[in-house]
Design a protein that fits this description.
324 residues; alpha/beta; Rossmann fold; 6-stranded mixed sheet
């Protein structure tokens, strides 16, 4: 049994939103259905993976990383009220079958996004004493996961839960990863060392290192999926990385000293690495994380959630939230 299960809540809620959309054959389900689905999913994960206390990790934009790299995840936009109003105005000015279909699509996506946001807001408001959450403006789930890997107080074996491949870089000797893919897989630090053939890397740097360092190098040379301009988007097999790819560029893994070879690469590395390095947030949020880890599923929190669910006719078994 793991002590904590740190769940990529933003992904889980979004995944369930798309699933419900398919189940409703393209019709928009109310936010209550999405909230019900989310609570069931957390209960299933807790049973399947085996952890004591769920902790929900949320995204909250706009991301701070965009202050360093403007293009960071710039392709992941959702329909805003402004976009909806523009589509309505366009249809009024140029009424046609095509502009009507465009308006309907935007209205549909906007409503779906509003339901997502409402379900998220109600979860944060009404489950905080059952499933404690970590959320702060500008911080995404990846950032929370990185900070957790560096928290000295997190000594008991725990597990991260996400589909995001980036979270594989957050595995440590005390933090495993349960990837919520179609065929879920549990990864440990030893699994990653073996699968990625990292023994040569250990020998190269001569000291233990955070896997996020490895990710910075990998993204720059072999591809990233954050829509970062000026960084490779090619997809190559990870095991094609060899020692020669890096020893010409790096004197040490801390990136405090980068060789003078290829100045353009140096600049790109430093900027991307700075944006990626979520460790800088730890001093700001360490106290918040520590307080959150001390919170437990309380009887008062269970009763509050039960009353809320009943008042909104959301049918969820008490077993989903009554534990500890």
């Amino acid at each position: 049994m793991y002590k904590y299960g740190f769940i990529d809540a933003q992904y889980l809620l979004r995944r369930n939103s798309f699933r419900i959309y398919r189940e409703y054959e393209g019709k928009i389900a109310p936010w209550t259905v999405l909230m019900q689905s989310f609570l069931h999913s957390v209960a299933i994960l807790r049973s399947e993976v085996g952890f004591d206390q769920p902790i929900l990790l949320w995204d909250s934009g706009p991301y701070r990383k965009c202050n360093i790299i403007k293009s960071y995840k710039s392709d992941r936009n959702h329909i805003s009220l402004e976009t909806l109003r523009k589509a309505e105005a366009y249809y009024e000015e140029y009424p046609s079958g095509e502009s009507l279909e465009l308006l309907k699509d935007i209205q549909h996506e906007y409503t779906q996004e509003e339901n997502f946001n409402r379900a998220k807001a109600e979860l944060l408001k009404n489950t905080s004493d059952v499933f404690p959450s970590l959320i702060a403006e500008g911080i995404e789930g990846d950032d929370w996961a990185v900070m957790l890997t560096l928290l000295p107080e997190l000594t008991e074996k725990s597990v991260l839960l996400s589909i995001d491949s980036d979270w594989m870089y957050m595995i440590t000797e005390s933090l495993d990863l349960y990837r919520m893919t179609k065929n879920p897989t549990l990864y440990t630090y030893e699994d990653i060392k073996e699968e990625w053939e990292l023994d040569w890397w250990f020998k190269f740097i001569g000291k233990p290192f955070h896997l996020m360092h490895y990710k910075a190098c990998y993204d720059i040379y072999y591809g990233n999926h954050d829509n970062v301009k000026g960084i490779s988007h090619k997809c190559k097999k990870r095991n094609s990385l060899k020692l020669v790819d890096f020893e010409s560029y790096f004197k040490d893994i801390s990136l405090n000293s980068i060789s003078e070879y290829r100045p353009d690469i140096q600049k790109r590395i430093k900027k991307y690495y700075k944006a990626l390095d979520s460790r800088r947030y730890l001093s700001e949020f360490k106290e918040l994380i520590e307080r959150t880890l001390k919170r437990r599923n309380s009887h008062e929190g269970q009763e509050h959630l039960r009353r809320f669910l009943e008042s909104h006719f959301i049918q969820v078994s008490p077993d989903c939230y009554k534990f500890n």
